[in-house]
Amino acid sequence: MPWVYILECADGTFYVGSTVDLDGRVCQHNDRRGSAYTRRAGRRPVKLVWAIDFDRVDEAFAFEKRVSGWRREKKIAVIEGRWEDLPELARRYRRSVFPDPGPDDTGG
Questions:
Q1: What's the pTM?
Q2: Please, what sign has the CA dihedral across residues 37, 81, 73, 102?
Q3: Radius of gyration of the chain measured on its C-alpha atoms
Q4: What is the mean pLDDT of residues 59-66?
Q5: How confident is the model at residue 93 (pLDDT cuts 50, 70, 90)?
Q6: Phi, psi at residue 3, to the nearest 5°?
Q7: What is the DSSP string of 33-84?
Q8: Residue 30 DSSP symbol
């Protein structure tokens, strides 16, 4: 069964991955046989904080790539099960990166 998972590293960062052997993969991360990210000093031990299973490997891989690119606050929302907050978190981010021009901003 394919899984997408989020690990919390010892330094407080998150790592997103996918696997067909969830328990084995978490052990690999803690044994320095996982990703280069979790092998770095200060990242272990890692703790599994969230996982979801998929019917197909390609679906799991696509979802992993999607979540990997999310900011920390969106990952925390997923971990906490606050899926309904994701659209607003995305809008808030877009507004901070691409603010609406003010009334005096003519763009010229």
A1: 0.85
A2: positive
A3: 17
A4: 97
A5: low
A6: -125, 150
A7: -S-HHHHSTT-PSPEEEEEEE-SSHHHHHHHHHHHHTS-HHHHHHHHTT-GG
A8: H
pLDDT tens-digit readout, 2-50: 999 999 999 999 999 999 999 999 999 999 999 999 999 999 999 999 9
Q: Which amino acid is at 64?
A: E
Number of domains in the chain: 1
Host domain of residue 63: 3-97
Task: Count other Cβ atoms within 10 Å, centred on residue 3.
Answer: 20
- 104 part of a folded domain: no
How far, CA to CA in Å, does 77 sit from each of 7, 50, 71? 14, 11, 10
